[in-house]
Amino acid sequence: MRKTLRKLVLDLFGTFAKPARGVHILNGHYLSRTNGQAGVFQAQLSSLQKMCRLIRIEEAVSLIVNQAKVNEPLVAFTFDDGFEECATGIAPVLESFNINAAFFINPNFIDGDSAYRDDFLTNIVDTPIKRPMTWEQIGELHKRGHVIGSHALDHVRLLMDDPAILNLQLQKSRQIIEAKINAPCEYFAYPFGGMHDLSDTALALARKQYKYIFSQSDHRHNVSFGGAVINRRHFEPYWPVSHVNYFLSVKKS
Ligand SMILES: [Zn+2]
């Protein structure tokens, strides 16, 4: 019931909502929880493009980091968890709009055996039938101008202070990705992405290992943690455009 009411409110307000000026980074995961079609994302971007300018993720990051004054709504994209449809469905749609995205991946999900993957899908990200991208697909995305970032080695909540575990999750994942794409890995999105999903020690270590760190929270502010973390707003490609518009209409500071 509460969900239906929320949807009605979003439909109503979203129909009249206008995206606010500023840089919006939208973070999604898949075309749908089950078997999504790329067409839904194509349609969503076609509608969004009428109200916002779609930009590359590096441009969005640079504008935020340099605190640039932005007088129009700008939208860039990232995707977490590295599902296969990022390569087969999502990236081609982004490319047809002449933009890219940052894809945040977990190396152990890609290299894991079926028991590891089942646990990852069922107990951690709650999308039972997905598959990870292969390293070949990830290498291709990199060559086509997308950004490949780390989402930690495993999809774990980085609340611990143990330097051995944190080094594995933060440094090792970066090293694996860099060896696979043969380029620096400078972007890190910590798993779960909430304001309370990262310990101070993990943040300090992440800042040493990566140039840019991303949450999926506190979207009203461009940055959090004293400027150390860039905030993203959750969305999914299959959401109605009215809902996305409503979220984009929130004034940012
Ligand atoms: Zn995730």
Description:
The protein is an alpha/beta fold and 253 residues long. Helix content is 43%, strand content 15%. It has one domain (2-248): Glycoside hydrolase/deacetylase (TIM Barrel, Alpha-Beta Barrel). Strands 1, 2, 3, 4, 5 and 10 form a six-stranded parallel beta sheet that branches. The chain has a two-stranded parallel sheet with strand order 6-7. It has a two-stranded antiparallel sheet with strand order 8-9. Strand 3, helix 4 and strand 4 (101-105) form a beta-alpha-beta unit. Helix 1 (2-16) packs across helix 10 (241-248) and helix 2 (38-49) runs parallel beside helix 4. It is globular. The mean pLDDT is 93. The structure holds zinc ion (ZN). Zinc ion is lined by residues 80-81, 151, 155, 191.
Pick out its properties.
253 residues; alpha/beta; TIM Barrel; six-stranded parallel sheet; two-stranded parallel ribbon; 10 helices; 15% strand; globular; binds zinc ion
Total helical segments: 10
The biggest sheet, with number of strands, parallel, antiparallel or mixed sense and barrel status, is:
6 strands, parallel
Q: In total, how many beta strands? A: 10
Ligands and ions found: zinc ion
Q: What is the average per-residue confidence, as pLDDT, rounded to a whole number?
A: 93
Number of domains: 1
User: In the CATH classification, which architecture applies?
Assistant: Alpha-Beta Barrel
**Would you tell me which CATH topology applies?**
TIM Barrel
Gap between N and C termini: 33 Å
Helix content: 40-55%
The SS-based structural class is: alpha/beta
Classified by CATH, the class is: Alpha Beta
> How much of the residues is beta strand, in percent?
15-25%
Report the radius of gyration as a whole number of Å. Answer: 17 Å
The CATH H-level superfamily is: Glycoside hydrolase/deacetylase
Give the H and E element order: HEHEHEHEHHHEHEHEEEEH
